[in-house]
Amino acid sequence: MDGLVDAAHGTSPIALSAPDRPSLPIVLASPHSGRRYTPEFLALVEVPEAELRRAEDAFVDRLFSGAPGLGIPLLAAEFPRSMVDVNREAFELDPEMFDGDLPAEANTRSPRVAAGLGAIPRLSAAGRPLYGKPLPVTLAMAAIERLWRPYHQALSRLVASAQAAFGVALLVDCHSMPSAGGLGDTAGGETLADIVLGDAFGQSCDPLLVERAETFLSQRGYAVVRNTPYAGGFTTRHYGRPADGVHALQIEVNRALYLDEARIEPTAAFAQVSRDLIGLVETLGRSTLDLRR
User: Fold this and answer.
1) Strand, helix or coil at 27?
2) Which of 61, 70, 180, 189 would disulfide-bridge 33, Cβ 3.0–4.6 Å?
């Protein structure tokens, strides 16, 4: 079995928590909270698991785990983003990482690839190379086929089902961001925002939804900014088609709000942040219904 692919036969690479009957036109996705590190993958990489875990959007799937109780499906990748990042194009790959030729359709020149953060990342969260030698290109293709593709097949079905049932749909892509050492650092080393709302600078989501999200969060004391430094990745831009009735919004939550970042463990504030986010999701779902009028 290829080293980037789960070695447990029959184990799904995704976790779907879905109600019997959705009650709101909203789908939640957590692409980066996966924490299933296989022995085969750990044997391939040259950094310790503790360093790999710094790339996780740790426990974001749990932050939003109350959503299915409101009739809202939640899809989460079970595998870590350091293995395969599903918030990238399938073939957004660095040719220098692989032994063999990539497919002709590979996107080898994106800013993400240049930063070492393609669909199969080259660097850890600390900026160190993950692999000591080129990987067989067949390994990359297998990982994309068995991890990336099932995730997006499931997500596409959920979004299409929501739109078919309600006439409109909103995909919320759920992420977290480091409180320091990330792209949003201030000069003092801390991220200003509590939450960043990304709508690809107005391209992926109706402004009404972003406005209501910002109002809801601000009223609860959160510092909210839009699109800086996170405007939305592949998922937001690929699925968000407001003219067709499908909207996509990325939410980045500052980890200091709910996580002990050194120990990678939830803090006492976790429960309240989770309640607020579930309230936000419910508000967004009802607001999405308003777009039908």
Assistant:
1) strand
2) 61
User: Considering the domain boundaries, does residue 8 fall inside one?
Assistant: no
CA atoms within 13 A on the CB side of 184: 24
Which residue has 């750990």 as its token pair?
Answer: 42
Query: What Cα–Cα distance (Å) separates residue 92 from each residue in 59, 238, 256, 283?
Result: 26, 14, 31, 34
In a domain, 206, yes or no: yes
- Residue at 130 is within a domain: yes
Report pTM: 0.94
CATH classification of the domain holding 131:
3.40.630.40
- Look at residue 141 and tell me if it is in a domain: yes
Q: Which amino acid is at 23?
A: S
Q: What is the pLDDT of residues 116-144, one digit of tens each?
A: 999 999 999 999 999 999 999 999 999 99
Residue 272's DSSP bridge partners are none
CA distance 231 to 249: 9
Q: Encode 135-148: b = buried (16+ Cβ within 10 Å), e = exposed.
A: bebebbbbbbebbb
CA distance 108 to 114: 8
Select the more confidently predicted residue: 2 or 192: 192
Measured distance CA(28)–CA(43) in Å, rounded: 32
SS3 74: strand
**What is the domain count for the chain?**
1
Of 61, 84, 75, which Cα lies nearest the Cα of 5? 84
